[in-house]
Design brief:
Helices cover 79% and strands 0% of the residues. It is mostly helical. It has 2 domains: 107 residues, Hypothetical protein af1432, CATH 1.10.3210.10; 65 residues, no CATH class. Helix 2 packs across helix 7, helix 3 crosses helix 6 and helix 3 packs across helix 7. The structure holds fe (ii) ion (2 copies). The site of one fe (ii) ion has 5 residues, from loops.
């Protein structure tokens, strides 16, 4: 299957943790939302697999832009139609919910939402990422994660099913982070 080829191309550059802790979750939640929203499952899966290809290859900065030509290259090589390629490119450029690049299609909304939903399954890993970023400063790491989950909840999850899926985890994570912040 062609999707398997795309997955192979992504796994060539992504390490195992990237797959286990992020990409596989985004694929899972995006497919769940796609079923509910009744959109093209193949495009959703392609976009979920490729949405962070820019970050994986070149780092986080502007990866919603750097990922676009990378995804295009992979999909062109596998002979995907222009229509599919355009939709996937739009999903990549809009997945960070930046003000200049809002999601304009249902599939792009699904990818943006699934990206945010996935974070709530890996809160301890987000803390670890924060610790690395701030040289082991736990106060800064906790604040960063708190800000991140608030941003995900407020700015990124717009489909009703997304909030429903995450609500319990969001409240639990927020309670734990706020409780910890009171000790700082
Ligand atoms: Fe991303
Ligand atoms: Fe992502």
């Amino acid at each position: 299957m062609m999707i398997e080829k795309v997955k192979e191309a992504v796994l060539k550059v992504a390490d195992e943790d990237e797959w286990k802790f992020h990409l596989s979750l985004v694929v899972k939640y995006a497919k769940h939302l796609a079923k509910i929203e009744k959109v093209n499952m193949e495009i959703v899966e392609l976009a979920a697999l490729l949405h962070d290809i820019g970050r994986i290859k070149f780092g986080g900065k502007d990866h919603e832009i750097t990922g676009v030509p990378e995804a295009e290259k992979i999909l062109k090589r596998l002979d995907y139609s222009d229509e599919i390629i355009e939709e996937v490119k739009h999903c990549i450029e809009s997945h960070r919910a930046g003000v200049n690049r809002p999601a304009k299609t249902k599939i792009a909304e699904i990818i943006r939402d699934a990206d945010a939903i996935s974070h709530f399954d890996i809160i301890p890993i987000l803390i670890q990422i924060g610790l690395k970023k701030y040289d082991g400063d736990i106060r800064k790491a906790v604040k960063l994660v708190h800000k991140k989950i608030d941003r995900d909840w407020n700015n990124k999850m717009h489909l009703p099913e997304s909030k429903r899926l995450v609500e319990e985890k969001y409240k639990a994570a927020k309670l734990l982070l706020e409780t910890t912040e009171k000790c700082f």
